[in-house]
From TrEMBL:
Organism field: Clostridium saudiense
CDD domains the UniProt entry points to: UdpNAET (cd01555)
Reactions catalysed: phosphoenolpyruvate + UDP-N-acetyl-alpha-D-glucosamine = UDP-N-acetyl-3-O-(1-carboxyvinyl)-alpha-D-glucosamine + phosphate
This protein's name: UDP-N-acetylglucosamine 1-carboxyvinyltransferase
Function: Cell wall formation. Adds enolpyruvyl to UDP-N-acetylglucosamine.
Amino acid sequence: MEKIIVRGGRKLQGEVDISVAKNAVLPIIVATILNPTEIILRKVPMLEDVTVLINLLRELNCEVKFSPITGDLKINTSNLKEIEGNNELIRKMRASFLVMGPMLARFGRCKISMPGGCNIGSRPVDLHLKGFKALGIDSEIGYGYVEAKIKNLHGNRIYLDFPSVGATENIMMTSVFAPGVTIIENAAEEPEIWDLARFLNSMGAKIEGAGYGRITIHGVSELKQPEPFTPIFDRIEAGTFMVAAGITNSKITINGVNEEHLMPTIEKLKECGVYCKMDGEKMIVDGTGEKRPVDIKTMPYPGFPTDMQAQMMALLSITKGASVITETVFENRFMHVGELGRMGANIKIDGRVAIVEGVNNLTGCQVKATDLRAGAAMILAGLVANGQTEIGEIYHIDRGYTNIEDKFRKLGAEIYRTYR
Ligand code: EPU
């Protein structure tokens, strides 16, 4: 079983390069289904979730060439076939529900396994289906599948009860060809939504307002071959390294940061005593000062990201004083509390609220990555814990971070992977 071993106590120094964002690249890969021509994506990170999507496209008869060294990904979906039955790869990854919209646009129908819940929550798809219905697509859930068929595709006004990232992306992709105008109200505003629209527009789609609460899509009848496209940097990976500087009292440089995308994390870390300075796309993070407890409430963008909650909790668990963390996006995203507790953290949970009482030090032990970001939090805690931390179930970490142990080792951390 693969594990990541961290020996705590080293200060970090030097520079780290941030990869392209997982949550931008996944929907963009899926969106290539809309356009049967050769499409080139640049700097695609070698992530487990990317591999699953590549394998899915190959299984569906698409031509896919990936060079993990340059990150060039060439996709041609001209020979795409429909998804059949109980597809293992679809069930493997939640983000694969995003294929529904583009598949509907290509074949007029699509049947895939109903995505299950996961470690962080039940994760229903009602908002995706509500959007489809407004666009003239009927859907039905039964026998573990979601089956949808286009009845009368047309633009419409869609109000999302919650600004769901996935539902916004699925509706945006489906409505690219919907005759007339589609307006998504209360749309998710995450930078990854803006980036997906940038990609779709580069192929000739007509999308305005992405990145804000109201997105307008004018249906087009066809798309053209786009120029090679490079998605945005990963704001959550950058945030994870910012916390790493804070938790180890270090000063590091992070290459590949869009300051605006990281604003909520930058502001919260500043409140906590971790400061940063931008120099173009480089961020110099100074985590050497005294830390203060802070209160955090996760919210849809531009609120504090749920994907940074676990990492911040690791930092606050050794910050003197009491911090209150409220998770409002996912109903079960505190699995890492138990693991941090094993390392000596003092955290109590009451429903969606965690009260973190900072302790003087953490101690290394065997823990597991209960989800992707929880895994990152375990590495961060391991960097300051006394002794050795052994992190299991690291396939969660590999879903969303490229060569994380190499990046930390380059910064001077004592961290490696074992394969026994
Ligand atoms: N929700 C519904 N109904 C729906 C869709 C969502 O009730 O039809 C609820 C979910 O159950 C959840 C909340 O809305 O409680 C937020 O879900 P959302 O749809 O916004 O999230 P997602 O699209 O499933 C993406 C990221 C997540 C990230 C969230 C929130 C991708 C591939 N995943 O998930 O990333 O946490 O947005 O920002 O883009 C991660 O990277 O670690 C990760 C989990």
